[in-house]
């Protein structure tokens, strides 16, 4: 039977706590999958601004920034870097999500979070995630709330305002964001209404969790050539 | 020792390029501007490339350009004048004759009505399917028969575009016709595994896995299928801009709408050309799609008013014609239709794909024109190539990404997928996305081809 545990940052399991901060853990995001899916289904609007901004050619500095955002996203989500940002990246979700965050909270605040991530280089992904998400804090700082929104964006394809306590998303980032939400991978499943799995897949057990690109897995994505 | 190792590596890489690009035995006439020494080029060669050659840059845009080169080299080799054994004749070149046209290698492949025979009979290579009695007086050996099939088999039928979205009508009211062919390797696999009949498919217990083209084994071309779109040749068509063939146009009797069986002998002109080739770096197959250059304007052409005087499937003088809309019924292919198609190529491709196709098309047209200024082949253009960015390994797709995250995500040929151009997953035209759902008559996955559903 395949492994259905909740995805964790690489190397170690996330310790369970009952603090207020814990409600932003990836385990909790999975619980909210239904809400996000429902939101998509009932027509929470898609935004196009981030996608348009992401389509422009980046400068070298912007490319460095994007790469750091991708590395930070891998640490925050527990997925392999080549899942977050494949070498031949057709969807460019990293660019889309970075542009979305810039659009929603401003570049300065995003840079503050990325800067914090860069300062933590050398630590394990779990340590980085714990620090950025302020999992031990009952009064998380603004950057931690933004980090939680970034995690939700990757898992659920939707933007949740860092300043809002609402369980509902502001909007779904894009159709690609919805179908490629990491929550589907973590559940060894696929988005409702979209699956690329081969005809008849429903008659067999899903592939093992590691094959979906979870941080301590060995697979999850590749490139051509 | 290090020097020797380096030399060995360089020789190995060079040999790999020669093998995969099919330069062996032919002096390559390169047209593509070289950027790096290892960058593959479009060449005049009768050898079908067994797998793409890659340059040193593995970015999305660079890799896509490599696949576009593979598409063009495949197009050139498949449209090479065929020799006695059916492969490209190395002593001739495409478009070199007085008409600028030539019978091609792919036209000798097996048309699929000759594979899936009535009663599940065993097919033989080169044998036609059943010639309808009404066509027999006109039939000559080797002549192609373009037919409409019954409404119950409308999926991918030969006069209706995929998804039963409607026929394609040229500007003079003629129906476009379609045909699907398989190469020898694909045919042999079907034959060897009994997949040509429903009974054979039922007793087949393994996974359908067509052979892969290999960059390691010299000349091992994988399973390869062609889908060709033809328009009827009509007075007023620009001479010398189409590949032409003589065909029997067959329409069976129909009840809805009521129509009699008919067969006529006509010249047809190639307007669309799909190549699907399973190769070692693409168990999802590589999908190359070409069109005749006069088919339809792009949406940008329409919006900017930069239109040609004539298109095969678009009337530049008609402002009120409904764009990309299936003609009104009834659809009776042997009658002249009253509503021609108003086809427009929508802007569904990403910039890197458009840029690459433009560059490769310019280079290929110039190269083909060096053979002869009359060459019909210079009037075909690559729309794009769809390939998997995450193909898996060993010619087996990853279980969690069987479609391999294709680039570009969507791709359409206006002669074959006119009515499903767009960018909505599961709905808009994507070669890999659609063919990934293909199954046999048993419901088991069919390895990216729907043709096995035709088994009887």
Task: Please describe what this structure looks like.
The complex is a heterodimer of chains A (225) and B (456). By secondary structure, chain A is an all-alpha fold. Helices cover 46% and strands 2% of the residues of chain A. Chain A has eleven helices and two strands, in the order H-H-H-H-H-H-H-H-H-E-E-H-H. Chain A has a two-stranded antiparallel ribbon with strand order 1-2. Chain A is globular and about 45 Å long. The two termini of chain A are 33 Å apart. By secondary structure, chain B is α+β, with helices and mostly antiparallel strands. Chain B has helices spanning 2-21, 60-78, 184-192, 198-203, 299-304, 351-371, 431-435, and strands spanning 110-111, 144-147, 177-182, 224-232, 244-251, 254-255, 258-259, 262-279, 282-292, 380-388, 406-407. The termini of chain B are far apart. In chain B, 52% of the residues are buried. At the A-B interface, loops of A face helix 2 and strand 11 of B.
Short description:
The complex is a heterodimer of chains A (225) and B (456). With 225 residues, chain A is mainly alpha-helical. In chain A, 46% of the residues lie in helices and 2% in strands.
Number of distinct helices of chain B: 7
Report helical residue fraction of chain B: 10-25%
Main sheet record of chain B: 9 strands, mixed
Could you give the order of strands across the largest sheet of chain A?
1-2
Biggest chain pair interface: A-B, 27 and 37 residues
Distance linking N and C termini of chain A: 33 Å
Shape type of chain A: globular
Order of helices and strands of chain B: HHEEEHHEEEEEEHHEEH
**What amount of the residues of chain A lies in strands?**
under 5%
Which features does this protein show?
heterodimer; A: 225 residues; mainly alpha; two-stranded antiparallel ribbon; 2% strand; B: 456 residues; alpha+beta; 9-stranded mixed beta sheet; disordered N terminus
